[in-house]
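Final paragraph of the annual report: two paired records, presented back to back.
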Amino acid sequence: MHDHYTGRGLMATKSIKPGDVIVSIPSNLLITSQVVLRSELKDVLKIFPVKLTARLLLCAFVIYERQKGPSSFWAPYIGCLPDAFSTPSYFTSEELQHLPAALRQRATEQTRLLCDGFSKLTKFFEFGQECHFLSDFSFDLDDFKWAWSAVNTRTLYYKVEEAGSHHLVDPSERDVYVLAPFLDLLNHSSTAEVAGSFNSIKQCYEIQTTTPYNKFDQVFIHYGPHDNETLLLEYGFVEPTNPHSVVAITKEDVIKFSSEVMDAWVSETGSVLPKRFERIEAKGIWDISCSLNGPSWHLTVSLNILCMGQEQYGRGEWVGLLGGEEPSQECLARSRRAVQNILCNYLAKAVTSSQEVLSIKSDSYHHYMTVQLMQEKKFILEECLKQVQQFEPQEQT
């Protein structure tokens, strides 16, 4: 079936009940590092002086089998793979510039990893040709980008049998990459509840659903609790009304806006607040963000501690806030002002960014996803600000 939002997917041909197995793939149709090590590439891998990670082994395998064409056992599966993908590695330089800054930075790092992998596989295939194990074989960056994207967007992640024990696999990366023909046609939904595991008795990988479906419904699986920036980066799509999407707040802004509401403490907080935040981070505070549910607990408690009076802080009362104790009304009022200022500042920037992206005339899917990200960020900030403004305790005088 084909859906406007999800593209190609799988449709239920009958009603599906909670507990039903929706897909079962025999072990002999799962492509793992062990399959690659038993393939026609094994002779090169045995003498190639550099070990390849499981991910690169799968990339080399799909590139090699693709070039074999119809003679490959895997030709029907490889023929079903997309010719191109919608992940950032397929974006133009101009399209990358329009992505949110944090995502653009992650995409740059992903590109670095891709280029590093290309360099390693180039040496591998050149070595194979020099040793006369591979003949009439051509390989370029486009081939690798396609293979890397296919593996990165379509693999299952579970510990492969005997993984890590084989001396030809680079152990620097976990051997958990598995390509499963047909199963990768199932699209993602945050509301889908599934459990996947290898059935050692039946020797197959199974996915069981706890979400019921009617006949002709599209059937979904769950890739994980990913926000839309991660979904775009790793899989090349965004999900409407994604419950896992958040707006990250920088450490620098948390300190800056806390400093601005400290009144008499402003001159002192230049050195005091960064030191406070270091102690907060040491306690495991990391989720500095806001979502449709409001500011994260980590953001709230960080602001409460940063906005605490020096006398209270000196007595160690900040530790109690980490344990769930309530801050003083004075501290709470300052904290609320700080979070409102943060949200207003981020919202103003989000509105500007959204307007800039919307002004671009483009009908590409890359542009569509960027617009969705910008609009989502703006919506989250608006809703979060409304929630914060519903409760405004007064600062004591």
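The closing record of the year follows.
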Amino acid sequence: MEVFESTEKTSIIFWRVVTIATGWLVLLFVGSYLITPASILTVVMNDLDITEATAAALVSMPQVTATVVGIPVGLYLDRVQTRGVVPAAAVVLLIGSVGDWFAGGAGNILLLIASRLFAGAGMFVLWVVCINVASSTVPPTRRATATSVIISGYPAGYALGQFSAPRVAEIVGWPGVFPLFGAAVLVSSVVFYFAVGNVTRFETPAESPTFAEFRQVFVNRNIWSIVIVTVLAYSLYMVFNSWMPTYIIQQYDISLAESGTFVALFPAVGIIARPVGGWVSDVVLNQRRRPIFAASFVGAIVVTVALFYTVRVTILVMMLILAGVVIQLQIGLLYQSAQEFVDPKAAGTAVSIASVAGWLGSFVAPVIAGELVAITGSYVIILWFAGSLGVAGGFSVWRMSESGIDMAPS
């Protein structure tokens, strides 16, 4: 009997690890697909003869779709077996990536925008499902850690995209990079689908939220505080990811590939920073979230100021690594904090709202940065913009409430 129980426990742990690992891979390739235009921005602008703002919008088109369909999709996913939608969502993203290939090769900017928008629907579904599966695969006391670990695949994907896209583009041409990552998403999603089918899921609320409970989420002041903080956090994150390669090329005498390599360090450190932020909040700070949020925004301000005076490439690399750490400390906590402010039955809706807020910031901020560059004619304005986002974020955190694990919904 003891041998049987030991074997069963080992099997449960094994499938938990496999599920988290394969979900991590799904988000790895999703993130790589999403960030690809940013790492080859100058090439895309030259080939398609488009402005900085339009090029930046290409990076963020999938987030536009996520912002529009996010809440309805989240409500739908709360009512179905989420495992079943994984392959379909991956196919949607693959079709969009193939569309990117054709559009880029034909020089059709409108078709490229449309295909990126289409792929965004699959991207959002995969994101929400991965978070949902991570939180229900482990006991409640470990859910924040599991969520932080699985979403760390996303910045790893940004790093992979920033590093590999310029090099792959030299071989297959920049339009050919998109379907390669799209195919990788499909393959990893199929493996994830089978892994989820073998893992033991912990009990989650059996009933869907009522209309009154759903409405309560939207009138909850604390949820709107999280929305503001999430928008600002992801705005900072995407300004660095989408515009730093171009900024570095303009300010320093280095190649596009070298720039992509340096900037890849920024999201890459999120593999460690996101789980560490969750661990520090849970263990060191006794499940308080606001100190991590505050440290993240204040740290971003300090790094941005330092970048103004950076003239050496070695110092630049150090600043990018530090920026990646401080900005991403809070990312995993945003979704946990959103859930803590609402009834457990509405937790999925809260995560969807926070996700939509993040996509909104991810889309809007790079476009604003592009417009500012076009208006001023200087890439230094990007640092001013990033510093302003840090100040706004710090003020928002100062005004928000602490969620905490025992916080009752307001």
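Confidence is low (pLDDT under 50) at residues 406-410. This concludes the annual technical report; the extension proposal builds directly on these records.
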